[in-house]
Every structure is written in C-alpha cells, then in structure tokens.
Amino acid sequence: MFAYHQQTGPIDLAFTDRHDGVSGGAWSSLNLGTSNGDDPDRVATNLGAAAEAFDVPAARVVRMSQFHGRDVAVVDARTPSGPVPVADALVTADPGVALLVRVADCTPVVLADAAAGVVGVVHAGRPGMVIDVAGAAVEQMRALGATSIEGWLGPRACGACYEVPEQMRDEVAAVEPTSWSTTSWGTPALDVAAGVRAQLERRDVRVTDLADTSSMCTMEDERFFSYRRQGQQSGRLGALVRVRA
Question: Is the pTM value of this prediction over 0.85?
C-alpha cells in the first residue's frame, strides 16, 4: 500500500502505490481517484483502507479538487465536513486532520515543519511547476508559523520518460531551466520534479527526493498508476501527511 512511509517527530507522511485496494480493471487496485470512471463505492473503500493504514479516521482526511492552478487552501478540523477545497495545495497547522494529494504522473509533494507543527501537500504537474504552486504552499506554511520546512517528492513521470514537443520544453525551461530534459531515446522532455526541487530549495526547503534511492517513475514502474502509460482510466496514487495530536 505504501511505497514510502515515514515518521519524523510528530509528523507522519506516506506515498501510496497501487496495491492492496479493491478496484479492478484499469484501476486495479488502490485507486484513490474519484473522477476517472472507477466505481465510487470502491474508491471510498480504497480511501478508507489508506486512511486506516495511515492510522487516521477516514472522516479526518482532507482531499482537494485539483485543477493545475496555484491556489492553496488552508484547512482545519472543520474542513472535512464541508465542501471539498478547489486547490492544488493544502496546508494546515491543525493536528485534527490529514492532508491528501492525488496524482498519476504529476509530482506529489509533502511539506512539513516538525517543530512548528505545520504541514502541506502539493499537486505539481507541468502547469503547476511553471507557476510555482509548491512555492505558494511554502509561503502559506510560513504564514502559519513554519520556519524550517522539509519537503519530499514522490512517484511521478521522470525526466527520461516525460516526452514533450520541443517548443513546450523550450517554453517551460525558459521559466524553470532545471526542468529541461531529454528522454532516454533522445527526444525533448521535461523533468518536472527537478524543477519543483529547485523551486523549493530556492526557498530554503530541505528536499528529499525518493527517486534518489529507489524506482519512482510512474511510467516505468507498474507498482504505480500512470496516465501516460494507461490512459484516461488510470487510477490515482496518493500522498498523505499529518501532525499527530
């Protein structure tokens, strides 16, 4: 279920893989996405299983409706009972909730300041990297009192696989040069995670990239869902973080 799970001080964080769920077909098996054609009841069961494994009640997990923007929602224990936030990043200083971001090739980011008890998650696809959604999340965390932020980058399409037209690569690299890449077969590509990492490090965020120590490419590794590899009906992975009460 978890490709990575860590406790650091009062902070719990995890990145899911696609195993140990109940969905079938293209969504097999731990699909956490609610808008990709999977059966809603099965998705709800999967979300509940992920929450249980993360040792938090499902009713305290805050998700978001993601749209490749720069909006950051500041949430608290009241949020799960209200409308789903429309945003591409969530931050909180409330130990009563866990935050969830969902991806299927985009870069999932977890952010935490253990001393301040402030955490965040970010959905950083190519458009989000261009407009620096991760930086917007860092700014909101600092507004909540965070001063020493760590970041983790999870499973995503790597720079050797994420092929794009040459003009797109040039346009994106003009904004974030570290994202310029080439596929393993020699065509233009983008490394979104490299761009996100550079943006975070410029803001003095200490970054751990899980791909530095293990396979984390969603397009290459079938432990993960991939929109590019599977198409519209691919499942969604998740990243979770919370402050323990």
Answer: yes
